[in-house]
Amino acid sequence: MSIRFTTKARRGIVALTLATGLALGVAGCGGGDDEQKPKPSASASEENGGSEPSAQEGQADEPLAELKGPGGLLLQLTSAQRDSGGFVTVGGTLKNDGDKTLALPAQLSGNETEIIRNGRSFGGATLVDSKGKKRYYVLRDTDGRPLTTTGITSIKSGESIPVFMQFPAPPNDTTEVTFQLPMFAPADITISG
């Protein structure tokens, strides 16, 4: 077998694993009490030209952390859930506390060429395990697209948009990590699950 074939096969297996994990996660979130769940606003997705963000499983009433960003942006992290597939999904809400519509800074996408060429995202986010002395970057699919909320270019004054970012999971005994996003203050969070 050639190295090229082996690499493509390995990428295919990773993509299949990610797709299966995401499908199982979506299936686990569905069902029952649809009347009590708030319906996401279609206008936020349409105006920003991106995929519609979804609420994350296991979100807490009280945020795990609040990170202040430029121009009145506030990121409230509401969940950091470890799954059996070896991933950690961090969910939250991005809010504009300012008095005018803000363009999201391009720096949130990070500085990696592969992520930048796929448009606006939260691809610059990282989890830092100080105990294990490791930094975990946002996962990417086989086409280099980050596994985060994408396509948000601006946010109106007072608007809140649900967001998520998915990372490789640190070792099981690591539950305390620092969440970092360019232009926002870092915050310590606890991984559950």
Percent of residues in helices comes to: 10-25%
Write down the overall geometry: globular
* CATH architectural category: Sandwich
User: Over all CA atoms, what is the radius of gyration?
Assistant: 17 Å
The sequence of SSEs as H and E is HHEEEEHEEEEEE
Query: What is the mean pLDDT?
Result: 79
Identify the strand order in the major beta sheet. 1-2-3-8
Would you state the CATH class? Answer: Mainly Beta
Number of strands: 10
Tell me the β content.
25-35%
CATH topology: Immunoglobulin-like
Biggest β-sheet, characterized? 4 strands, antiparallel
From the N-terminal CA to the C-terminal CA, the straight-line distance is: 39 Å
Helix count, DSSP H or I runs of 4 or more residues? 3
Structural class: alpha+beta
Give a description of the structure:
It is a single chain. This protein is α+β, with helices and mostly antiparallel strands. It has one domain (51-190): Sandwich (Immunoglobulin-like), CATH 2.60.40. 20% of the residues lie in helices and 28% in strands. The protein is built from three helices and ten strands; from the N terminus they run H-H-E-E-E-E-H-E-E-E-E-E-E. It has helices at residues 3-29, 42-48, 113-116; strands at 65-68, 73-82, 87-96, 102-103, 126-129, 134-137, 154-155, 160-168, 176-180, 187-190. Strands 1-2-3-8 form a four-stranded antiparallel beta sheet, with no helix packed on it. It is globular. Residues 31-60 have low confidence and may be disordered. This is Secreted protein. It comes from Streptomyces cupreus. Residues 40-55 have a biased composition (Low complexity).
